[in-house]
Amino acid sequence: MRILIWIGALLPMVYAAIRFSTPYHPVWLREILRFIEHYGSIVLTKAPVDPLKFMSDLSGNSALWLLAFTLFISPLRTYLKLNLLKYRRLMGLFSFFYLFVHALLFVGIDQQFSMAGVLHEVSSKPFIAFGMGAFVIMALMAITSTNGLYPKFKGWHKLVYVAVVLIAIHYLMSHKTVTFTHVAVVGTLFSLLALRLLKR
Amino acid sequence: MLIRQDYAYLPSSEITSESVYQERRALMKLAASAAVLAGSPLLAALGPYQKKSSSLELTPYEQITTYNNFYEFSTDKESPARLAKKFKTRPWTLTVGGEVQKPQTLDIDTLIKQIPLEERIYRFRCVEGWSMVVPWVGFSLASLLKLSGLTSKSKYVEFETLFDPAQFPQQNRTFGTIPFPYREGLRIDEAMHPLTILAVGLYGNELLPQNGAPIRLVVPWKYGFKSIKSIVKITLKETQARSTWHEAGPREYGFYANVNPAVDHPRWSQARERVLGKFFKQDTLAFNGYAKEVAHLYKGMNLLTFF
């Protein structure tokens, strides 16, 4: 199970590596990728046209989906008697890893590590503030997730509910128009929260 | 005959590389053979494509034609190229009406033969924060408007994209998209400015549907959404012209929508931009680098209010 989670969680990185290395693919690899491209609705043989946006979207979406899976673990145990609790920390940390990449792209590439720039963006744009708020919460959770610290900070981990709401708003705001897909994604996130709250 | 004019005034250290040049030559050979097959009047008018010197590094043809905002086809950027394959650009008529002396309906091929075409290499900056450099082929909007004759009541120009839900899948929907038909507008002095063109081609080739075939507006100092695609109607008005994105989100998209690094979008900064194909951002220029030519149009206006 642990190995499956590792593979699943690293798939987005593999995907990015394939896309960015497109110009250097040997012929055999290109043919295999073309084959997969033909039968699956996924682009594999084209370098990203807007690379920063591509990485930003990929990391953000991966963080969101991994967080959703993390939230799914406790309802799975309650309703389906499937206990994956011991993998929850690993999945949460993977989610934070992508969130970290996402935030690093913003702070490092977008704002060129200018703290004044970051502060200005956070204070003037709710869209950025929501995202950054979720990042701070997830960072605190990641730091206090060690065996030694977790028992002391267990209560604080309830803040994940706040993080999910912030992420949902940030996600909805990130698009110029809200589509069915966006509503479905946020609906999924909120249903997971509701499932967890209901059992109490 | 084709008059080639370079409006890429700003000095740039980025000179077109040899590989890009070769790539372009190969593309042009392809275009030339396609022209023989299709008997395209535009390509006949253009003659063989020649490499011209420009200080700007052109965005590859492949990127310009596969990364498109065209909400009539899809809200994502890769799909329009795929969904636009069967889009019919002939027969096509363009109606010029409203406050003009002589309202008229023009056939696109007749129009292309009537007005001399030129190549214009322009920077193109999207409100979303990405940018490219495009070698358009077209003619000044002013030359078309003069054909219809302006009056003292011609104060704004309103453009409209084709409304045809059979060809534009998103026009069947009401949720998750913008209201159709797409409309955009300019003030008359902006419309008559020599930099404002109607484009019918790019890279010496006919426009592809995803780029707004058969005829589109290009206003290089404004955000891309002002440069409306696949135009069927141009209406001269005495009152302010409509603008689809401005009406959808007046706080986010201004009527003027001049490229301005000092005015942020409510969700992102406009100070810098992502040049397609490049990972690191570059500074965005006031009026997209065309301040010398157009800043006087807005003298005395507070650009923080009229963004």
Describe what is shown at a glance.
The complex is a heterodimer of chains A (200) and B (307). Chain A is an all-alpha fold.
Can you describe what's shown?
The complex is a heterodimer of chains A (200) and B (307). Chain A has 200 residues and is mainly alpha-helical. Chain A has two domains: 1-47, no CATH class; 51-198. Chain A is built from nine helices and no strands. Chain A has helices at residues 2-20, 27-39, 51-80, 88-110, 115-124, 126-143, 150-153, 160-173, 180-198. The longest helix of chain A is centred in the N-terminal third of the chain and has 30 residues, at 51-80. Chain B has helices at 18-38, 41-46, 61-64, 79-83, 108-114, 141-148, 188-192, 244-248, 291-294, and strands at 3-5, 93-98, 104-107, 118-125, 130-140, 156-161, 183-187, 197-202, 205-206, 216-218, 231-237, 272-275, 282-283. The model of chain B is unreliable at 6-22 and 29-39 (pLDDT under 50). The termini of chain B are far apart. Chain B has nine helices and 13 strands. In chain B, a hairpin with a 6-residue loop joins strand 12 (272-275) and strand 13. In chain B, strands 1, 4, 5, 8, 9, 10, 12 and 13 form an eight-stranded mixed sheet that branches. In chain B, strands 3-2-11-6-7 form a five-stranded mixed sheet. With 307 residues, chain B is an alpha+beta fold. Chain B has a single domain (3-298), classed as Oxidoreductase, molybdopterin-binding domain (Sulfite Oxidase, Chain A, domain 2). Chains A and B meet through helix 3 and helix 6 of A and loops of B.
Record the SSE blueprint.
The complex is a heterodimer of chains A (about 200) and B (about 300).
Chain A: H1 2-20, H2 27-39, H3 51-80, H4 88-110, H5 115-124, H6 126-143, H7 150-153, H8 160-173, H9 180-198
Helix pairs in contact in A: 1-3, 3-4, 3-9, 4-6, 5-6, 6-8, 8-9
Chain B: E1 3-5, H1 18-38, H2 41-46, H3 61-64, H4 79-83, E2 93-98, E3 104-107, H5 108-114, E4 118-125, E5 130-140, H6 141-148, E6 156-161, E7 183-187, H7 188-192, E8 197-202, E9 205-206, E10 216-218, E11 231-237, H8 244-248, E12 272-275, E13 282-283, H9 291-294
